[in-house]
Amino acid sequence: MLIFVKIKDSNCLKNKHDIAPAEIKNLLTDENEIRPNMLEVQQTEAALVNFAEAHSVPAPSQLRAKILGKISEFETHKRTQAKLELSQLPALDNAANWLAWQDAVAGIEPPANFKNIHLHTIESNEKRELFVAWVKEFVPEEVHHDVVESFLILEGSCECHITNQKGETRIVRLGQGDFYSMEPEETHDIIITSLQPAKAIIEWRKLAA
Predict the structure, then answer these.
(1) Considering Cα of 60, then 65, then 66, then 70, what sign does the dihedral take?
(2) Where are the alpha helices (DSSP H) in the chain?
(3) Both 119 and 189 in a single domain?
(4) Same-domain check for residues 94 and 119
């Protein structure tokens, strides 16, 4: 496992996602609750900084572009966010504002003890089925013949393995704010790649409607 540390100064890790001295102290506390002294904490902190410096590599240019693109997308969604009503939800498409959808379903929670997948129906009619979905580990392989399945990731991340009717396969990786739509007859499964369950809006648009 690689540890990445963003260094603000040489004496202390003070940024939001750094390993704080208190966390190091907890990690070094043994099963008998014997806590390390400040010198041991500082030595461990220095070792982590040295490790990060020794193993740091420049970020690939495409990764930098992707991160900047996500930041720009987030700012755009903040500016264009409009309140959604559960009784009049729009079609789920590439222009969906994930912040607006997140707020619209904020009061809906899954059962505390759900096993792997939980679906909460928010709309069901002759045109479409609309759900809030939570997935802890995976969605087993499935294929839809009479609906177009689309989803918008609200929390977490996942990896979709997709095979079309010609047998061609592709992998699509999605994170918070990402939208994707499956073509009918595409076989697919989904693996959750985040530590927390993925939460998404799922739309099944009926082709016969």
Answers:
(1) positive
(2) 21-28, 38-55, 61-80, 98-104
(3) yes
(4) yes
4 and 95 share a domain? no
The answer to whether the predicted template modeling score (pTM) of the entire model surpasses 0.70 is no
In three-state form (DSSP H/G/I as H, E/B as E, the rest C), the secondary structure along 148-193 is EEEEEEEECCEEEEEECCCCCEEEEEECCCCEEECCCCCEEEEEEC
pLDDT in tens, 96-118: 998 999 999 999 999 999 999 99
Q: How many domains is the chain partitioned into structurally?
A: 2
Question: Quick check: 118 and 110 in contact, CB under 8 A?
Answer: yes
The residue segments making up the domain with residue 29 are: 1-57
pLDDT in tens, 133-155: 999 999 999 999 999 999 999 99
Token pair of 69 as six digits: 């693109």
Beta-carbon-side half-sphere exposure of residue 170 (alpha carbons within 13 Å): 8
